Amino acid sequence: MMSPIEIPVNRPTAVTVPVGDADGDTTRCRWSTSSNGIDECGGVCPPHSLPPNAIIYPNCTIIITGQTVDNWFAVAIMVEDFISPTSTTPLSAVPVQF
């Protein structure tokens, strides 16, 4: 279980999700989605679960800027591994929520 992360108001905050792959495949992160009857995020799909302009980078760094004091957010991402840096088809995907 991950502890809450403080996101200050009006200050972009970087949250880095540590990821690794046992056999050295390329890993990337993306927002979880819910479409075509597949719900990857259990009802906390971005963008509705996060403040506007939250960004996720493929290296699993998320930038979030808080808008109000004492607000809580749910983050739902997918961590995927790929055979090569240029591949677009994941070998596997693991959901992560915090």
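Second entry:
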Amino acid sequence: MTPSEPIKRVSLLLFVAIVFLAALASSGLQIWFDYRETRERTQSTARDVAIVVGAQVKNTVTQADAIFVLLADMVRNNNGLATIQEPANQLRLAGFSKAIPGCTSIALVSPEGWIVALSGLPDTPQISVKDRDFYQSAKRSRELFVGPAMISGVPNNPILFFMSKPVYDDGGNLLAVISAGMETTHFTDFYGLLGFSVNPAITVFKRNGDLVAQYPEMERYVGLNYARSPFFLGVLPTSLAGVGRSISPVDDKPRIGAYQSMQDLDLVIYAGVELDSAFEAWRGRAWRTGMTNAIALTLTYAVFYWGYLLFVREIALRLANDELDRISHIDALTSIPNRRAFDHALANAWTKFEHGGRPLTLMMIDVDWFKVFNDRYGHPAGDACLKKIAAALMQAPLRPVDIVARYGGEEFAVLVQADAEGARAIAERMRTAVQSESIEQAGAGSASCRVVTVSIGMAQASLRTMASSTELIEAADKALYDAKAGGRNRVVEAAA
């Protein structure tokens, strides 16, 4: 054994230990991330259920309120309830009842608290509802009232909650109270059609703690009040909406729950998923992950080097792809962004502008008499000329979000997030910078200028006159044409 062999063995053992710990840590992190994702997904599900139930409640109450308005008009047109038993009115009452989703019946109650008409029953029995919440509330307030759930006295004893609203004449006299008996299941059972992966408990409360609807086991909790529960005493007063781990106010089970307070309806929506149910699938995945990684550790050392090579190769490939992507957005001659990069930048800038972003101005720049320059000095000199012009344009005071690009041939495009005044100052700086390069231009069409110059057409984006970025380009091109026609070596702004 050479003196270095023990060191090699220790190094190997240390290496294996590091690999083992790394794999163990990886397994633990994988399980933890899965746990966190499961928790967040369950929170999202609970929040979505609460939102959907809230929308269902809101839509139902809104529809009922609209029907109540029509019923109130019918009562006023009949000067009260004296003729409400007539067949035509009974038919209308039955039709109104069917128009409210989840409604079992509509009752018209006299100011004294007696049911005068009931949808579906031409011969309405004389029943007093003076002691009912929906009648008492209608006497106190003109607002729509949503009452707590109760066991109805009709056949089969369904569990209903009642909505009511008073009807007053122009003189402020109470003519009637409209009441609708509603199935509690209408607020809760529909969620099963939405395909949620968990089975949440759904509760609709009054803000005073009375129960309006509950899924599941509504019959078990009907008539109870939860005003003294930790949820109503500690959670609800601090925030009108929330999501997280909590104790269910109904059955005291730990749940991941979401709630929202609907103050305009005096209601609270709660949706919660039991912790055991929420994490049941995760526990199975965690066990499988742990076992799989434990087996994989026995193969780690053998395949590590091969995997390392693949990893290095993948990194090199990504870097190469990133470099190719960068190169594909750079003009090979001038080393500034090319047409592809400009199109991408314009699309992004236009989208931001449409959503209320900063002012946006486009400049189209063309080298004056460039064909004459190429014909006289040759293409190598033309290439050198374009490089100098690109460098001169890049000297302008631009923001990081602005872009100077070679648009094609001897044409450049500049996109700046500035108003017309600021953009014109930049354009003049660019025009002057190019002229200051003093690139000789003998034989050009203008005898007044013997150096290379540029013409610039600029247009400011306007949602009032432009439907797309294409129209912005067209406006800048038109301004560039006007700059050429006006004598070149100038900046022309498109008409607003």
